[in-house]
TrEMBL record:
<protein>
    <submittedName>
        <fullName>SDR family oxidoreductase</fullName>
    </submittedName>
</protein>
<dbReference type="InterPro" id="IPR036291">
    <property type="entry name" value="NAD(P)-bd_dom_sf"/>
</dbReference>
<dbReference type="InterPro" id="IPR002347">
    <property type="entry name" value="SDR_fam"/>
</dbReference>
<dbReference type="Pfam" id="PF00106">
    <property type="entry name" value="adh_short"/>
</dbReference>
<comment type="similarity">
    <text>Belongs to the short-chain dehydrogenases/reductases (SDR) family.</text>
</comment>
<keyword id="KW-0560">Oxidoreductase</keyword>
<dbReference type="GO" id="GO:0016020">
    <property type="term" value="C:membrane"/>
</dbReference>
<dbReference type="GO" id="GO:0016491">
    <property type="term" value="F:oxidoreductase activity"/>
</dbReference>
Length: 270
């Protein structure tokens, strides 16, 4: 059987690069998407050499509304079909909502929501038709716990809402495609070592969080791969975050908010 192809967005660093390594290690070919082509080419060479994976490098800005279609077209032009999609690309939108330009919020939504939905819309029908497909969307623990200003100051006021939408959309699409061999999983990581907090200016604040809060990108990717293969709709990687999100589900809302306020002090280094 020909090797299957996984398309991974945001593959030039962090969680996306870790997913690319995980898929290649598991015997898949990979299509790597991000803006920094040099980083993608470096990773492609590594994966070809180490795992014999065939790679496609696709430089694209996913805040551009035309990007998802152009990406899918490039894969088709290379004579390949997308068997797995990892929607992962992302960045924060720091600053108070009221002080930001709408144009910036609109680009944020395009990157963090529309590109994810559009890529699913473009790839899921083919997967369903062929009776095999895997879709992973990267959400965040921030969608599953009460909202704290310490989180949204750097990632963006609408970040937890965006990540919540991904959870609901993934669960619903997963239910629609369950009988057609397409597994849809949403992964909700907590704080993870990557470039994310350097890009959004939160590195100094994140240095205040205890080590046991920090996840490794490769562990997030391994958890996501395992979950989608097993057909698990939602996976929260790491024991600490499993406990925290379970607690948030069962505690009365005021108590969960009070706990979050205490955590916020830790994040702020108080
Ligand atoms: N790190 C955390 O603590 C954490 C926690 C929960 C959820 N997440 C989520 O995990 C995902 C991956 O983040 P990460 O932690 O791995 O951060 P990262 O190391 O900064 O990686 C982000 C990736 O997204 C790509 N990207 C950013 N803007 C893009 C654009 N306009 N077009 C195309 N690609 C773009 C970046 O590549 P280029 O710059 O080369 O384009 C990079 O490959 C994000 O969706 C994030 O919200 C992260």
């Amino acid at each position: 059987m020909a090797r299957r192809l996984a398309l991974i967005t945001g593959a030039s660093s962090g969680i996306g690069a870790a997913f690319a390594r995980e898929y290649a290690r598991q015997g898949w070919d990979v299509a790597l998407v991000a803006r920094r082509e040099d980083k993608l080419k470096e990773l492609a060479s590594e994966l070809e050499e180490k795992h014999g994976a065939k790679t496609l490098v696709i430089a694209a800005d996913l805040a551009d509304p035309g990007a998802p279609q152009a990406i899918v077209d490039k894969v088709a032009k290379a004579g390949r079909q997308i068997d797995a999609l990892v929607n992962n690309a992302g960045a924060g939108q720091p600053g108070h909502f009221c002080d930001t330009e709408w144009a910036d919020q609109a680009r944020f939504l395009e990157l963090m929501v529309t590109s994810y939905l559009k890529l699913m819309h473009l790839t899921a029908p083919g997967m369903a038709q062929r009776g095999f497909g895997r879709i992973i969307n990267i959400s965040s623990v921030s969608a599953l716990v009460p909202t704290a200003k310490a989180h949204t100051r750097y990632s963006g006021t609408i970040y937890p809402g965006i990540k919540s939408l991904l959870i609901k959309a993934s669960e619903a699409l997963g239910a629609e495609l369950r009988d057609q061999g397409v597994h849809v999983t949403v992964v909700a990581p907590g704080y993870t070592w990557s470039e994310f907090h350097d890009v959004n200016g939160a590195r100094e604040t994140v240095n205040n969080v205890p080590d046991y809060w920090m996840l490794k990108a490769e562990d997030v990717a391994a958890a996501g791969y395992d979950a989608v293969e097993r057909g698990v709709p939602l996976r929260v990687p790491g024991a600490f975050y499993k406990f925290m999100t379970a607690l948030a589900r069962i505690l009365p809302d005021p108590l969960a908010r009070a706990l979050m306020a205490r955590q916020e002090k830790t994040i702020e280094g108080k």
